[in-house]
Amino acid sequence: MSGRPDPRVGVFDTLLVQDAAPIALETHLRRLVTSVRAVYGVALDADSLAREVSAAGASGPPLQRIRVVFTPGTGVSVEAHALEARPRGPWRLVVRRLPGGWGGHKWCDRSLLAEWADPADPSVDPLLVDEEDRLLESGRGNVFVVHDGEVSTPPADGRILPGVTRDAVLGILADLGIAGRARPLPLGELTSATEVFVTSSIGGVRPVATCDVGGPWDTGPVTRTVDESLERAWAGRHDEP
After folding, report:
1. Could you tell me the fold of the domain covering 7-82?
2. What number of CA atoms fall less than 13 Å from residue 122's CA on the CB side?
3. How far apart are the C-alpha atoms of 33 and 35, rounded to whole Å?
4. Residue 160 pairs with which residues in a beta bridge?
5. HEC profile of 204-218
6. What does the alpha-carbon distance between residue 79 and residue 90 come to, in Å, rounded to a whole number?
7. What is the tens place of the pLDDT at every residue in 210-224?
8. pLDDT tens readout for residues 121-179
């Protein structure tokens, strides 16, 4: 296996629908439109897509996951999937080396990430690191590491997905007066971390319980505070994070 996603399969974005309204709709579609233009040279109609996604959210159950998929040669499709509940339990991360990272687009081809997952345990996810053992992201979200109240996350340098929830959490940290920044994070720093959490558009803020080079970690005060703040924001405002 090459370790690189196949762009011929397309790109996608995933949105959470709560109370029949999409969360951070404009931000998610803006990211997808940017990816499609950069990778395929195609200009999508964001306003039309927003209407279609909003209609899908309004016509379905209160809790859904919506995937907006662009396939080259075919175009855009909107897929809505009902959710009984959001995945909120702690992750167990296993380190996997991926030189150059997965890239800044949300690729449909996730075959390598699927190979690294554990079908018998959905709480297991790969923790991607580069050729110099610096943290990149998990298979299904952006990683945040806490050291005695100070929060760090790998930079969005084109090697990781610039997560919508990642950006929302950085804003929440600033609003709460908690020190938070994007910086290169050596894998070895996990051994001294006091908390670790992962952010995604469906799970929100999910704690990391273990990693094969660090932990175990409890769900600490920073993780809880950020989680509660994000959940309040999502409950009260759907158009932006």
Report:
1. D-amino Acid Aminotransferase; Chain A, domain 1 (3.30.470)
2. 5
3. 5
4. none
5. EEEEEEEECCECCCC
6. 27
7. 999 999 999 999 999
8. 999 999 999 999 999 999 999 999 999 889 999 999 999 999 999 999 999 999 999 99
Does a cis peptide bond (omega within 30 degrees of 0) precede residue 241? Answer: no
Distance (Å, rounded) from C-alpha 31 to C-alpha 201?
13
CA-CA distance, 207 to 175, in Å (whole number)?
Answer: 21
CATH number for domain 91-236, candidates 1.20.1310.10, 3.30.1390.10, 3.40.50.720, 3.20.10.10:
3.20.10.10
Question: What residue segments make up the domains of the chain, in order of their start?
Answer: 7-82, 91-236
**DSSP calls for 39-79:** HH-----HHHHHHHHHHHHHHS-SSEEEEEEEETTTEEEEE
Q: pTM of the entire structure?
A: 0.95
User: What is the distance between the alpha carbons of residues 129 and 179, in angstroms, rounded to a whole number?
Assistant: 24
At 112, which amino acid appears?
Answer: L
Whole-number Å distance between alpha carbons of 115 and 127: 13
Q: Give strand ranges (E) for the chain.
A: 11-18, 21-22, 64-71, 75-82, 91-97, 124-129, 135-138, 142-147, 150-153, 180-182, 195-200, 204-211
- Residue with token string 């995604």: 200
